[in-house]
Design goal:
Strand content: 15-25%
Structural class: alpha/beta
Helix content: 25-40%
Mean pLDDT: 94
Largest sheet: 9 strands, mixed
Shape: globular
Number of helices: 8
Number of strands: 16
Strand order of the largest sheet: 9-8-7-10-6-1-4-5-11
Length: 319
Amino acid sequence: MAEVLVLVEHARGAVKKVTLELLTAARSLGVPGAVVFGPPGTAAALADRLAEYGAVAVHAAEADDIDDYLVAPKVDVLAAMVTDRAPTALLVASTAESREVAARVAVRTGNGLITDAVGLDADRTATQSIFGGAVTVRSTVRTGTAVITMRPNSVDAVPAPAGVELHPVPVSLSDEARRSRIVERVEEARSSRPELAEASVVVSGGRGVGSAANFAVIEQLADALGAAVGASRAATDAGWYPHSAQVGQTGVTVSPQLYIAAGISGAIQHRAGMQTSKTIIAINKDPEAPIFEIADFGVVGDLFAVVPQLVEELARRAG
């Protein structure tokens, strides 16, 4: 069977959920091979977890200083692998960094690129949601290696244990790759909530929340559901919540199992970042709010009355 390369996303010694989803999708196309970047020993520590989801090969692109640079080292290595191995596809997550990697690899190797796929068939045909979710299209790369970025939560991660082999990959940083070096890292404050892009449940607040202090209501519901907290651009521009939590066309794209929009009118820019959510619940006191057009369930009411009742009911059912 044809080889499918998967760029591994990992943090703090653990494989990110989106990578397990990519490995699941890769199995429908061919034989998955996982590509791990990091200091020596990184790939070996992740190999068992990757094998659990079907990786038959783990390609270790390791160097002591590889994490000190931006995307260029990954592009150099992946472009060389695509050229030498001619895999049927290269799958990466639709994160800001990985989308840049995918675009550069596609240009450098002369292959086709499909971005933000929400579904993938065995013939490399990808499903995409475009124009703010107004149109669904199906695209394919007819020749060469298909370079495809996939949204987190687009595929259910399903284990398929496989025997795995570890293969070292030569890493030679070009002068161009060394041009931009990371001189300082500032770690974000750790949160017990799941990462926004990968969360199965997201609770977002918008202009209707009214203030930064009032976002406590949104956080209470999120914590009751084990969810991530999101916000509309109106809320983040007003300074009520961090821009890193912005959901929408110019923010984070999410595709959770459940998305709750509280006090969000539903501008097309926001809908572009969440419309592929499996189930959407809207809470808004304006019955004409556009968010109700795409909601599976809607509550017309004041979020400050509705959300506390919901939190109370969840607590009661939890015992």
